[in-house]
Specification:
Order of helices and strands: HHEHEHEHHEEHEHEHEHEHEHHEH
Family: Belongs to the UPF0065 (bug) family.
Organism: Mycolicibacterium iranicum (Mycobacterium iranicum)
CATH superfamily of the largest domain: Bordetella uptake gene, domain 1
Pfam family, one: TctC
Number of domains: 2
Strand content: 15-25%
CATH architecture of the largest domain: 3-Layer(aba) Sandwich
Shape: globular
Distance between the termini: 22 Å
InterPro entries: BUG, Bug_dom1
Number of helices: 14
Helix content: 25-40%
Mean pLDDT: 89
Protein name: ABC transporter substrate-binding protein
Number of strands: 11
Length: 372
């Protein structure tokens, strides 16, 4: 991916170059002659440290790129993963925040940039990704055309955790805390339930539209603001239901202003301490594989040697299975540990793509030229 479609700020480029100058030292000759060796597989020493491959990878520090601020969900994840991985890696692991990528094509933009950096085509640089968010970008933005990418272009190292969306309701609604009763009420009273949306085409909105299509119901939709603002409005009675994040909903649930109806994804019951076990939407609607939510992990540039990708996968897997990392991640409301390899990540994308296409087409939100 070599297309460059935006000017980088001088400050951002200078900061990135300063970091990269100290982290990636492989020569142009090493980059151009790297080949895959099927026998060059990851090996852990007796002390638990992952050993370099026979071709010497990695010779110098690795970098995880975050397309957001340091204190964002992805920024915190990258730092916790880097800390866990550094304890078993033969080289240091650094984190580079590039929030300007988040205003364009997110992880796709980061990967396009990484591919042009020294060491990027060797696996020395990676990026944090969340799915199916990056898949939806292929439909709702011109990234596929501008950067020449597709679902198959996402070179997944490993996905390590999932965070569902939660469907919440104002307290005191006629359906109580039952998702099934809410759907039954919606069928009997078409368009009466007030749904506060994150916005057409957003992941939470696609999820509820998908469920509404399956159940054959309609809602009275208005667009809210941030997740916190939506929960505040819901708690004040300005709406009836919303789809939000567990961390944003939790304080309002604890205060009794909002109740949990159900959650997205395949974890059943919903993964969090909500005071009672709530069945997920998939089990209630008969969905075999529910892709909605945020499944987070690490990706690398296309074309890096497969032996390097497998080495990085072994590193991420081992780091994400450490007790310290699991404790840190699962202390965040709704986070569940879930490992998906490259093939499974592609299946997750495919599960979301067709449904998201249909919904975005109905909403008139498809990017021009996008096809199914």
């Amino acid at each position: 991916m070599k297309v460059r479609h935006m000017l980088r700020s001088a400050a951002a480029v200078a900061a990135a170059m300063t970091l990269l100058a100290g982290t990636v030292s492989c020569s142009q000759r090493e980059r151009s002659t790297a080949t895959d060796d099927a026998t060059d597989t990851p090996v852990f020493a007796e002390d638990g440290r992952l050993q370099p491959l026979k071709d010497g990878f990695p010779r110098s520090p690795l970098t995880i790129v975050v397309v957001d601020e340091a204190g964002s969900d992805d920024g915190i994840y990258a730092r916790q993963l880097a800390e866990a991985a550094s304890s078993i890696s033969p080289v240091d692991i650094k984190v580079l925040d590039r929030p300007e990528f988040g205003s364009t094509y997110g992880a796709w933009e980061a990967l396009d940039w990484i591919a042009d950096q020294r060491g990027g085509d060797e696996g020395y640089m990676m990026a944090v990704v969340t799915l199916p968010g990056s898949t939806i970008d292929l439909l709702a933005t011109p990234v596929a055309k501008d950067l020449g990418v597709s679902m198959e272009s996402l070179n997944t190292v490993a996905l390590t955790e999932s965070v569902p969306y939660v469907i919440v309701s104002r307290a005191g609604a006629p359906w109580g805390d039952s998702f099934e009763d809410m759907l039954a009420y919606a069928k009997e009273n078409p368009g009466e339930i007030r749904y506060i949306s994150r916005g057409p085409g957003a992941g939470p909105d696609l999820a509820l539209n998908n469920y509404a299509d399956i159940a054959g119901v309609e809602f009275n939709t208005s667009v809210g603001g941030s997740h916190s603002e939506i929960n505040t409005a819901l708690g004040a009675g300005a709406g009836d239901i919303a789809v939000t994040l567990p961390g944003a909903a939790s304080p309002f649930v604890q205060d009794g202003k909002v109740v949990l109806l159900t959650c997205t994804g395949n974890t059943n019951p919903c993964a969090a301490n909500w005071g009672k076990d709530q069945p997920n939407a998939a089990s209630l609607l008969g969905i075999e594989n529910d892709p909605w939510g945020s499944t987070r992990g690490i990706v690398a540039a296309q074309g890096i040697p497969e032996s390097h990708r497998l080495w990085l996968e072994a590193l991420v897997d081992a780091a994400s299975e450490s007790d310290e990392f699991i404790k840190a991640r699962t202390s965040i409301p709704g986070v569940g540990m879930e490992h998906l390899d490259k093939a499974q990540a592609l299946e997750l994308q495919k599960a979301a793509y067709g449904t998201a296409y249909d919904i975005l087409e109905q909403l008139g939100q498809l990017s021009p030229g996008v096809t199914k």
